């Protein structure tokens, strides 16, 4: 048995031990982190897991926006592997199940919506979205007094609680067992970026590809981006994380109150490795005043098996600037 498996077993043991002692009361994020570190995780491993969590949340929110309930549910499940008691993900997956039930009239979707909403209320008793879902669906549950329906709901709740604990293990180990389709969404063998947009080369080789930071042309004339440092870190579970610190300088006459960028990492053939959005200046965040700079850390873990040797350059595109 290798060291990774030993750490996994140690983490499982400690997690179940704490859960039993707490009588299945929700664990806080700090408690989950302490269990992970005590089981052999590193601080960097834990931080990378949070990055993966945020990726799943952002994809799930996009699917919700376009009423793609099934894919939203899949992404929220992946997020809950990392943070099983996260109220945002619990309330949102309950909502997705409720909407799919309204579309497809499958009783199990209604039951799952109730289970996740009630689990959310355990961690956050005043969560308005979860309260609405429970109130609405409880009225709709015409068979609620049926012993068979009641037993089915109890079984579902037990399965969800147990699965939430077990699934956390895979995610906290940087999704060693995460579904392959997640990485496939981020890594497409057919997606090639040609840096020379006016004359695309017929074959991309390392000789005609750029290196390091690249900034895509945009209409923003009041912003310059400069790389201060770039490093790769080895993570648990055969994963690599890229950390790049960049300076965002406001060269205009007015403050930048909103700045969202898209960062894409490419390999030695110009094929995308992974892509992610970053809010350099989030809504209601600290603006970048005229003439000032903001130092911002861009960090992203690569899909499993993708290392520094696969990396060639990363491209920053401005998605929103105000």
Strand content: 15-25%
Q: State the secondary-structure class.
A: alpha+beta
Q: In DSSP terms, counting alpha (H) and pi (I) runs of 4 or more, how many helices? A: 9
The CATH top-level class label of the largest domain: Mainly Alpha
The strand line-up of the biggest sheet is 1-7-4-5
CATH H-tier superfamily of the largest domain: Tetratricopeptide repeat domain
Task: Tell me about the largest β-sheet.
Answer: 4 strands, mixed
**Broad shape:** globular
Low-confidence stretches: 174-203
Q: Can you tell me the number of structural domains?
A: 2
Features:
322 residues, alpha+beta, Serine Threonine Protein Phosphatase 5, Tetratricopeptide repeat, Immunoglobulin-like, 4-stranded mixed β-sheet, 3-stranded antiparallel β-sheet, 9 helices, 7 strands, 46% helix
Task: Summarize the entry for a quick read.
The protein is of the alpha+beta class. 46% of the residues lie in helices and 21% in strands. The protein folds into two domains: 3-178, Tetratricopeptide repeat domain (Serine Threonine Protein Phosphatase 5, Tetratricopeptide repeat, Alpha Horseshoe); 185-321, Immunoglobulin-like (Sandwich).
Task: Characterise this structure.
- Helices cover 46% and strands 21% of the residues.
- With 322 residues, it is an alpha+beta fold.
- The termini are far apart.
- Mean pLDDT is 77; it is low at 174-203.
List the helices and strands and how they pair.
Layout: H1 3-21, H2 29-38, H3 43-65, H4 69-82, H5 87-104, H6 107-123, H7 128-140, H8 147-172, H9 180-186, E1 212-215, E2 223-235, E3 239-250, E4 259-267, E5 272-281, E6 293-301, E7 311-321
Parallel strand pairs: 1-7
Antiparallel strand pairs: 2-3, 3-6, 4-5, 4-7
Helix pairs in contact: 1-8, 3-4, 4-5, 4-8, 5-6, 5-7, 6-7, 6-8
